[in-house]
Design brief:
By secondary structure, the chain is mainly α. It has helices at residues 3-35, 38-46, 48-59, 62-68, 74-106, 111-126, 129-137, 141-164, 169-191, 201-235, 238-271, 277-304, 306-314, 319-332, 335-347, 351-363, 365-375, 377-403, 407-434, 439-461, 464-478. It has two domains: 1-238, no CATH class; 273-479, no CATH class.
Amino acid sequence: MSLKQKTVNGLAWSFLDNFVVQGVSFVTGIILARLLSPHEFGLVGMVAIFMALGQSFADSGFTQALIRKKECTQADYSTVFFFNVLVGVTWYLLLLVSAGSIADFFSQPELASLVPVLGLGVVVNSFSIIQTTQLTKRIDFKLQTRVSAVSSILAGIVAVVLAFQGFGVWSLVILALAKNTLTTLFLWFWNEWTPSLVFDLASFKELFGFGSKLLFVGLIDTTYRNIYLMVIGKFFSAADLGFYTRADQFKQLPSQNLTTVVQRVSYPVLSSIQEDLISLKAAYKKLIKSTMLISFVLMIGLAAVAEPLVVTLIGEQWLVSAEYLQLLCFGGMLYPLHALNLNMLNVQGRSDLFLRLEIIKKTLAVPVIIVGINFGIKVMIMAMIVNSLIAYYLNSYWSGRFIGYSMLEQIKDIFPSFLLASAVGFAVWFTGFLFETAPLVTLVIQILTGAVLTISLSELIRLDSYLYMKQTILEKIRR
């Protein structure tokens, strides 16, 4: 199979995987939002940072190190597996000891009983890291899609049933734990890999030499992405955090889905041609142009339909989330671009530079947090947008130097897509004023308007990123 075919297949299955997982989570979230209160969603959001940090520690950068290594042995995989599990169990024990302190910090007594149960997910996930790594290294996202789809659907059903039975916030807790457990079980059943009773110290040192820097990057990034939840939970109410987390989940459906697909597929694909700089740059340009067309259209479009979308799906009691969502969309549309630029540093083996960049960028979160505490959540999100632009400058400058693809050249390549998406987004937003009917009717009209205008304008101006994706999709269908 050629590199292009591997990339297309990987992108297709990875996108389907994330679309199914995010889609099921989205639908489940909609149902639960009508059964549970913003306060209950906020409680789970308060402890998200501790779960995410535990996952980063358990992985410790070994996933990227194993994917980058040309030939991995059974000893490599087994060594990393036992390390993952050891760290996962250690983190869980720390959570058990700290549960009461976490509850006191947020002034929410319920957290003392929620944290120990949610923390089990870190241990369960540690058993599946190698399984997922092996599939990603083989660019086998088809099996991952199957696992994710079945796990998400079954866990979602369990959570909704519990919510209908009046279990409240525990419905959200069991949702997370059930999904983690089912995913791990299915990966072990379908991937058919088992560890050997070996811990190779030489292998550990080799992999940790690269992965350790990514561990710190992961910890910094995880803290950065979740620190806002902690700040809102600490200085505002659980309900305010609930509104924010619902808006963030809406934003993540297109943004995080696309970013995850790009990260998962581009890293192994670009790593396979890391020594051919001409081919590397050509593949990189195509990925950036195609990815950002999708990102701009989806995120600007989502901002345009935020109000009728929120009211239609989860009700007017969540209307505050629509205001947050509009702002979050503008901050989130550059996420795929960040992912591609950072992946290039890893492909070139510069995890040290990756770490330094992350430290510099994440320190910029400090003034953002100060702004949020003093001026409110909306102003904090605006500051996050500015922070994202600065981060893009730093990422693109260094990755561009390695392959001769500067920030200005990147902007030149993606600017036509931004203009098209902005024009379509304005038209979609204006359509909402012209048709002030029931929110559902308005939403349908806006979505149809956006779809027709995007395709029509792309064909009219012969947008090259659109034409490339169209050709690739048609070739895939014909085969």
